[in-house]
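Entry 0007
Protein: Ribosomal RNA small subunit methyltransferase H
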Amino acid sequence: MRRLAILRRAKPPRTRGFASISSKNGSISDGSSIGSIGRSSSSSSSGSGSGGDLAQDDESDGRGGQRPGVNTLSSGKEAGHVSVLRDEVVDVFADTLGMRNEALIVDGTLGAGGHVEALLHRFETLPCNLRIVGVDRDPDALEIARRRLAPWGDKFRAVHSNFSEMKTTLGDEVMPVDGVLLDLGVSSMQLDRGERGFSFRNEGKLDMRMDPTSPVSAWTLVNKGPQNVLETIFREYGEERNARRIATQIVRARRKQAIDSTHDLVRAIAPMVDWKTARSHPAARIFQALRIAVNGELDSLETFLDNVPNIVRPGGTVAIISFHSLEDRLVKQAFKKYKDFTPCFRGVRKASKEESTENPRARSAKLRAIARRLQ
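Output (structure tokens):
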């Protein structure tokens, strides 16, 4: 049973995860056309670096001059988000695509653009002329990434869409591509902004929509969703053992007063939680479950995984970072069933101790990558 089949019986009706997902007609945030993000017929660029420390190399634009503003990698902290497993992701694509004349990669979860920036830096030292399309459904993230990556010119384009719809949004002019990267889940900059309603730690209106134009928010689910649907969401998406008790308590609390904010929700479920024995914040699973349901995250992932053979050309690479078992299980199972793909490495890559210490949110990240055999 598909993970979101449980929601198709709920009212009000939904298209995916209770949220309508729009590709915005494939609009590109800098006003360029879809056709302009296709393959370049120009000769490959040659980098001036030696493949060493990216932050220290002088980067060349391949035409004998310095590319302004891109001589060093930014930390990403100014955007409130540090890309996880950045070096591991770059290594995967450099190893599989770096020696080609040219390549086109789609970053389906662009965020603040940290992975894209790192990839463009590394490929400046390689023979491959790399172009990247960044897809995200969060307009705020697109704007941050567009500004950050502006110095790279036509090597980068940003598109407002859901990664599950990239084949339709980008069309035959772009598809199939040489590589796809997904960094699943919610970003640090979304968690840290209280008004987005993603985090139980920050006071804000219950929202949790990655695309603010989507019609259904966490507030709608919490205040209008049937009790049995809430219970199933908490059990399936949060793996919460007390799903029924918590759903019952939410319905009881909302009869007295609307649950308007993140802290209202935490207070509503507090009586049902054993705070003394909890290993992590008791609200974490509930917030995760609601976020997945609101944004149709597993549905989007399943749709993408079903389309991988139609998206990635022979010799191409797919790399996916997941943060919880529901995502990772889907990725692992899908990667195993593809007949003409092979793993780029055994098992998963995880954050180093140094990265986990510097960025605790990287501790649960798992990277899986596969490459399609040349036919």
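Curator remark: Residues 3-21+199-296 form a domain with the DNA polymerase; domain 1 fold (CATH 1.10.150.170). Residues 278 and 284 are 11 Å apart (CA to CA).
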